[in-house]
Amino acid sequence: MAPIVKISNLDKYFGHLHVLKNISLEVPEREVVCLIGRSGSGKSTLLRCVNFLEEPSHGSIEVAGVKVTGEMKGAQRRQLIHDVRLKTGMVFQEFNLFPHMTVLENVIEGPVTVKGMDRKIAIELAEKNLESVGLIVKKDEYPMRLSGGQKQRVAIARALTMEPKVMLFDEPTSALDPELIGEVLNVMKKVAYEGMTMIVVTHEMGFAKEVADRVIVMGDGELIEDAKPEDLFSNPKDPRTKALIDRYRTDSGN
To answer: Which residues of 118-138 are buried (b: 16+ CB within 10 A; e: fewer)?
Structure first.
């Protein structure tokens, strides 16, 4: 079966700084991939290149059959990038909710304005997803009245309501107080178990061990290790991976 995400020979420069170095990666449908690594290793930049929030310097990206290459220019490229974004849901570190809109209005905004979905259908889908993340009772509240964990769960419902083929999570718990992290991770586990293809940049090693089909370690803009979690955590090959895991075990007491 063809991969639903295919990254080929991807490079990214910020000026003279080479932050992603000839990365190639394939993600099959329904797979959960966790990206781990030290800060500055290129994880978030790689994720943001998948839906062109960062413009790749070289290489190609294909999502659900839509392929964008470095050679494409102009209107054709813009249209294909738009098509890729319609197939990817993104959840950020910060929640990026519109403060002047209710929870329900935040969740339906994308489907109605970007996809042209009928408002009634969008509301039905939004309410289903808010129910799934445990926040249907908050649908008429404004973001300022929500906790950080609740805001992030609304952000997940919002991304799901766009009916993406792939969900991208960029450190979705890093802005949360420790006591709120679990509620967001539980929603992410539910999304994963329901069969969504997911690429997750995370420092939550426990989540990676429990939920990921594969864990990929990044270092200095390269993919340095790619393995099943049980293999990676029990027998890391690269010393940088071992250092990461040792630090996790020290911090968690495992």
So the answer is: eeeebbebbbebbebbebbeb
Name residues whose C-beta falls within 8 Å of residue 138's C-beta, 6 or more positions apart in sequence: 103, 130, 145, 146, 150, 154
State the average pLDDT over residues 230-248: 90
What whole-number distance in Å separates Cα of residue 188 and Cα of residue 134? 12
Q: Give me the sign of the Cα torsion angle 245, 236, 206, 34.
A: positive
CB of 95 closer than 8 Å to CB of 148: yes
Query: What does the angle CA 253 – CA 182 – CA 157 come to, to the nearest 5 degrees?
Result: 150
Under 8 Å between Cβ of 219 and 38: yes
| Structure tokens, 232 | 């990676």
- Is the overall model pTM greater than 0.90, yes or no? yes
For the chain, what's the residue count?
254
Tokens of 143: 């973001």
Encode pLDDT of 121-161 as tens digits: 999 999 999 999 999 999 999 999 999 999 999 999 999 99
Classify strands 222-227 and 214-219 as parallel, antiparallel or unpaired: antiparallel
Percent of the chain at pLDDT exceeding 90: 89
Look up residue 114 and give its DSSP letter: T
Residue 214 and residue 200: Cα distance in Å, rounded?
11
* Residue 112: CB atoms within 10 Å: 17
